[in-house]
């Protein structure tokens, strides 16, 4: 029994791969290295360097490695930039997912765990997002993730009466941070933790965008979760699908309790030992004051819980990037 992890050389993907290996489950990694790192792929783990747009190579890899399920993380993940690159975003995230599903059907692979996103909710009008909260994406990225969920749903419907109906679930992530190993790190040029760490390493002062929100300290509140906790829930979802169990179509992986940008800055100063007072800049257009999700459904079904404090999240992120 082997699981294919698309995007398995990326920050989140590499942690998911490690979580599978820690559970004694075989994995094959697929990644085009457009944002991933080949050194993130564990020694001895089969690695296929290809795009998910290459259906023929995906089919071949699935057959050669006797793949029984897929964790689909590959995609273009930059919400802000997707506004300037909508066609690229849709090609990677929508066409790529369709090609993957075609390859799965051709290779008789009938289980998939899909990496969705909190971006499907847009700016929710509730203090606590649940799976029942209306979806209203506000970027091509968020739209493409929601369409990905629809593709899984529709393929499951189309194959329901066959001998291999598609079994699936989609995990909607919020802000994934930290590191489960000192050699795996977030290299995104858009995520808050690496932006803060990069600024400190370069001798610059990190910046807060917006300090006049209707929140306790005036800065945006977001849902931050540790990448290793996230990875464990992928394994739990895969195990359930592999055993023929039933999962909900979507799950939020959220903390239920948000953290402000200013709190993150304070914590980063503490764990790095680099004192600083963050620069304050105007709000960025489209940034909601607060987005926090309930993880109750995932806690019930996917062994989901917050196992790391904010200090542990920040310290592990710093440990993976600090000078040695």
From TrEMBL:
It catalyses: UDP-alpha-D-glucose = UDP-alpha-D-galactose. Residues 4-254 form the NAD-dependent epimerase/dehydratase domain. Its cofactor is NAD(+). Its EC number is 5.1.3.2. Keywords: Carbohydrate metabolism, Isomerase, NAD. GO terms for molecular function: UDP-glucose 4-epimerase activity. Signal peptide: none annotated. Pfam families: Epimerase. It comes from the Bacteria. Pathway: Carbohydrate metabolism; galactose metabolism. InterPro entries: Epimerase_deHydtase, NAD(P)-bd_dom_sf, UDP_G4E. GO terms for biological process: galactose catabolic process via UDP-galactose, Leloir pathway. NCBIfam families: galE. Belongs to the NAD(P)-dependent epimerase/dehydratase family. This is UDP-glucose 4-epimerase. The lineage of its organism: Bacteria, Bacillati, Actinomycetota, Actinomycetes, Micrococcales.
């Amino acid at each position: 029994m082997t699981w294919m992890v698309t995007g398995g050389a990326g920050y989140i993907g590499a942690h998911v791969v490690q979580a599978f290996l820690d559970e004694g489950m075989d994995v094959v990694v697929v990644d085009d290295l457009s944002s991933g790192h080949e050194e993130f792929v564990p020694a001895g783990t089969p690695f296929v360097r290809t795009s998910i747009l290459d259906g023929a190579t995906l089919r071949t890899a699935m057959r050669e490695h006797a793949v029984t399920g897929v964790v689909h993380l590959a995609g273009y993940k930059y919400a802000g930039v997707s506004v300037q690159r909508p066609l690229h975003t849709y090609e990677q995230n929508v066409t790529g997912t369709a090609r993957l599903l075609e390859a799965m059907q051709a290779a008789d692979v009938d289980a998939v765990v899909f990496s969705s996103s909190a971006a499907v909710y847009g700016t929710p009008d509730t203090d606590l997002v649940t799976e029942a909260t209306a979806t209203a994406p506000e970027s091509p990225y968020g739209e493409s993730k929601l369409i990905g969920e629809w593709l899984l749903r529709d393929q499951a419907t189309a194959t329901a009466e066959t001998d291999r109906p598609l079994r699936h679930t989609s995990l909607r992530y919020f802000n994934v941070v930290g590191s489960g190993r000192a050699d795996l790190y977030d290299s995104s040029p858009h995520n808050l933790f690496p932006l803060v760490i990069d600024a400190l390493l370069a001798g610059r002062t990190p910046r807060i965008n917006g300090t006049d929100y209707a929140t306790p300290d005036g800065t945006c509140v977001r849902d931050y979760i540790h990448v290793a906790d996230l990875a464990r829930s992928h394994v739990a979802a895969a195990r359930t699908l592999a055993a023929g169990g039933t999962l909900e179509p979507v799950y939020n992986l959220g903390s239920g309790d948000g953290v402000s940008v200013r709190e993150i800055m304070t914590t980063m100063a503490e764990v790095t030992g680099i004192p600083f007072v963050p620069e304050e800049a105007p709000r960025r257009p489209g940034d909601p004051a607060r987005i926090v999700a309930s993880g109750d459904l995932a806690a019930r079904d996917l062994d989901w819980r917050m196992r790391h404090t904010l200090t542990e999240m920040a310290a592990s992120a710093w440990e993976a990037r600090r000078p040695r």
